[in-house]
């Protein structure tokens, strides 16, 4: 649907963006993130035809923006951070004006305007002056002008900026619905918004794309391990042996302050007590070492139960584990069946995810390279 290839933009010998390169498929909602001055707005203005790139090419649905600008722009709906509204016009007169600008056929304009009034919740305000609308309704009207011509690509720059919580929820729901019929490029500073709405994340920093990934794969993209947190009912030693025996499990840890405190009090080396690291397909080869680690771990844990404030999970009680898999493999199904076959109820299983906030901070707080 959208192809941005090696696009750069220079401003008075200062580089605004450099060699931006990404594509978007039909039906995607892509979050476009970056700190102030990173190049988000410049990139969106080039995509929508308001700025010409210094180098590179932009293609909308197979149409080159440089060679077929008018046709390419007809496939785009754009809502800038400040909606392009005329305060002296009424809602109805503005929608008619936009329909004319967007070459909506005259015979279809009445139907299309009514669709906008319904979709954006503007019924009852047709004759109201735009200057008297609230911020939320102005944003709705801005969305109406962006979609009245049924574009294939929708570009939204900070669509929820300055709205109150109720208005933010309403606009997010509208964007979610629009994403069912349009390809959406969404720029926002509200990171949880991206997690709620988007199936892909682009981060730009100092004029360059530094991340292009799905929200659920951020940790993998950053080279960070992905782990699972389990709560299982049953005897500690047996549960650890069952989990450790799975081919793709490389590390198992018992989690909980009580256990760690017990191990410290016994002054046992941390590695064999709190973790078991193996890369074999089971416990063969490393089996005795792993069994010893489990036994030492359990023995020391149980020996410390006489000390105040330290509890030991006995059979019938629960144990909490942190499990790391090889090469970020998804072992949830294997864990479920292994524990079920062994007769140990799995009470909770939760994947530890790298937050978008952490990734954004890490990628955008590096010192300037002097290139931007």
From TrEMBL:
GO terms for molecular function: ATP binding. It comes from the Bacteria. InterPro entries: AAA+_ATPase, ABC_transporter-like_ATP-bd, P-loop_NTPase. Keywords: ATP-binding, Nucleotide-binding, Transport. SMART domains: AAA (SM00382). Belongs to the ABC transporter superfamily. This is ABC transporter ATP-binding protein. It comes from Paenibacillus profundus.
């Amino acid at each position: 649907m959208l192809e941005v290839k090696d696009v750069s933009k220079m401003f008075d010998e200062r580089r605004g963006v450099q060699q931006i390169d990404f594509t978007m498929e039909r039906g995607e909602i892509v979050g476009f993130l970056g700190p102030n001055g990173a190049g988000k707005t410049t990139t969106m203005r080039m995509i929508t035809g308001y700025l010409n790139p210094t180098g590179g090419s932009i293609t909308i649905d197979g149409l080159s923006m440089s060679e077929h600008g008018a046709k390419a722009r007809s496939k785009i709906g754009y809502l800038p951070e400040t909606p392009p509204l005329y305060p002296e016009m009424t809602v109805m007169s503005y929608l008619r004006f936009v329909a004319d600008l967007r070459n909506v056929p005259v015979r279809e304009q009445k139907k299309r305007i009514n669709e906008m009034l319904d979709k954006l919740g503007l019924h009852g305000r047709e004759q109201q002056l735009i200057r008297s609308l609230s911020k939320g309704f102005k944003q709705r009207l801005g969305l109406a002008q962006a979609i009245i011509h049924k574009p294939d690509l929708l570009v939204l720059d900070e669509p929820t900026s300055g709205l109150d919580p109720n208005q933010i929820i309403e606009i997010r729901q509208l964007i979610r619905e629009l994403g069912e019929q349009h390809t959406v490029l969404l720029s926002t500073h509200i990171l949880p918004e991206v997690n709620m709405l988007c199936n892909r994340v682009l981060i730009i920093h100092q004029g360059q794309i530094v991340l292009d990934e799905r929200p659920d794969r951020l940790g993998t993209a950053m080279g960070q391990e992905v782990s699972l947190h389990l709560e299982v009912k049953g005897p500690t030693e047996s549960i650890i042996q069952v989990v450790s025996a799975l081919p793709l499990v490389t590390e198992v840890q018992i989690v909980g302050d009580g256990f760690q405190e017990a191990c410290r009090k016994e002054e046992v080396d941390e590695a064999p007590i709190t973790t078991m690291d193996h890369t074999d397909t089971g416990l063969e080869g490393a089996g005795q070492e792993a069994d010893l680690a489990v036994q030492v771990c359990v023995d020391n844990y149980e020996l410390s139960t006489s000390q105040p404030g330290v509890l030991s999970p006995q059979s019938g009680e629960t144990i909490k584990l942190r499990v790391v898999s090889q090469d970020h493999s998804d072992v949830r199904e294997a864990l479920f069946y292994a524990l079920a076959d062994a007769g140990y109820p799995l009470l909770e299983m939760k994947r530890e995810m790298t937050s978008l906030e952490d990734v954004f901070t890490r990628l955008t707080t590096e010192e300037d390279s002097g290139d931007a």
